[in-house]
Design a protein that fits this description.
mainly alpha
Length: about 190
C-alpha cells in the first residue's frame, strides 16, 4: 500500500527536478523499458533494434555519443545552456575531425559526406566530392570572408564551426527517433 503512494511522489519529484511533465516521464520510461528490453541499463547492442539507425552510415558514431561519459546538468541557466550547446557542437565537430587535430580538413569533410551519401545509388562519388567541396568553400566564405587568390583555407576550426551553427536550433536537429508509432502502440 505504501508503494502506491511513493510512485506519484517520485513522479512529482522527477517532474520538479527535470521540468518534464509526468506524462513525458511516463513516456520516456516506457521507451527506456522497450529499448533496454526491461533491463536496468541500456547497452550499445540495444541500439541494434532502432529502425532509424539500422541503415544510417554514421550509426557507430551516433551510438557512441549515447555512451559519452560527460556529465549532464539539470536546471541550467542561460550560461550553462550555452555551454551545453557548445559541448554538443564540440561532439559533432569531433565526428568530422577524424584525426583530432582541431581542424576539419577538406579531405575529412569529403570522407564524411561520402559516408553519408554512400547509400544513395543515384549519386556518384564525384557528386559527393563536389558537394563537400562546395560546402567547404561556403564555410571558408563564412569564416574567413573574402580570400585572396594565394590564400588557402586549411580547414574548419571549432571557432569557425561555432560561427557556422550560429542561429541554428541544434536541439531539434540533433536527435534520434527511438521508436516508430507502431512500436509505441505496443508499449501501452
Amino acid at each position: 500500500m505504501g508503494s502506491a503512494h511513493s510512485v506519484p511522489a517520485e513522479m512529482r519529484e522527477l517532474a520538479d527536478r527535470t521540468g518534464f511533465t509526468s506524462e513525458q516521464i511516463e513516456h520516456l520510461h516506457r521507451r527506456f523499458k522497450q529499448l533496454s528490453r526491461d533491463q536496468l541499463t541500456i547497452r550499445k547492442e540495444n541500439f541494434d533494434s532502432i529502425p532509424d539507425l539500422e541503415f544510417n552510415p554514421i550509426r557507430g558514431k551516433i551510438v557512441h555519443a549515447f555512451f559519452d561519459k560527460r556529465p549532464i546538468e539539470m536546471n541550467m541557466d542561460e550560461e550553462q545552456l550555452d555551454r551545453f550547446r557548445k559541448e554538443k557542437l564540440k561532439f559533432l565537430f569531433h565526428m568530422y575531425d577524424s584525426d583530432h587535430d582541431g581542424k576539419i580538413t577538406l579531405q575529412e569533410y569529403r570522407n564524411v559526406v561520402e559516408e553519408l551519401l554512400s547509400g544513395n545509388p543515384h549519386l556518384e562519388k564525384d557528386s559527393a566530392r563536389s558537394i563537400a567541396d562546395g560546402a567547404m568553400l561556403e564555410a571558408a566564405s563564412i569564416c574567413v570572408g573574402q580570400m585572396g587568390p594565394d590564400q588557402v583555407y586549411e580547414g574548419i576550426t571549432f571557432e569557425d564551426f561555432l560561427k557556422m551553427w550560429q542561429g541554428i536550433d541544434i536541439e531539434t536537429k540533433m536527435h534520434v527517433r527511438f521508436l516508430n508509432m507502431e512500436t509505441i502502440a505496443h508499449c501501452y
